[in-house]
Write a structure and sequence with these properties.
8-stranded mixed β-sheet, 6 helices
Length: about 180
């Protein structure tokens, strides 16, 4: 287990999680915002991309009141990526996440998950700053992240290929209180 916050538990992904990840990553409602509806995941793709250990990303499952509800990953930005984004902070972490159980959408789970992970990264990984790059069109996620304290820093035009088109994204960040 990585951390708990009340009824929320975040732990690293294990091989036995492939079935729930496959379920979420073949659901067009989830894929519309994460990876793309033209990129459904099969068992092999799940194992290659999510059950891969030794990767530079820490990949985690999100459990709420004993039910697996989502996925979150985090990683430390390397010197090159920090330079691309214009950061000079010593320790910058990136993160990405989704709530895979759609019945938990619009219930405050994103807020609880994002604020809990930010606290974890600031306190346990000694991050100076945490960044994300959501699609401009993902208004629900943008509202959630701003509610969590993230601010829009810079528009990243044509930043990510999604469903056959390059999407604009926002570079968003939150930093350690001075």
């Amino acid at each position: 287990m990585l951390f708990e916050n009340g009824d929320l538990l975040v732990r690293q992904v294990v091989k036995e999680d492939h079935d729930v990840l496959s379920k979420w990553l073949s659901d067009p409602r989830v894929l519309e915002y994460y990876e793309g509806r033209d990129q459904p995941f099969n068992r092999s793709k799940i194992e290659n991309e999510f059950i891969s250990f030794g990767d530079e990303k820490t990949q985690c499952l999100v459990v709420y009141r004993g039910m697996k509800i989502g996925y979150i990953q985090f990683y430390e930005l390397d010197k090159k990526m920090k330079g691309q984004y214009g950061y000079v902070d010593r320790v910058v972490y990136g993160m990405g996440q989704f709530i895979g159980e759609v019945m938990y959408w619009n219930k405050g789970m994103g807020f609880l998950l994002v604020t809990s992970m930010v606290d974890y990264l600031l306190e346990n990984k000694f991050a100076d700053r945490v960044v994300m790059d959501p699609h401009v069109r993902n208004e629900r996620a943008l509202r959630c992240y701003e509610k969590c304290g993230f601010r829009k820093v810079k528009l990243l035009p044509s930043h990510e290929l999604h469903e056959g088109e390059y999407q604009d994204c926002w570079l968003m960040d939150i930093q350690r209180s001075q």
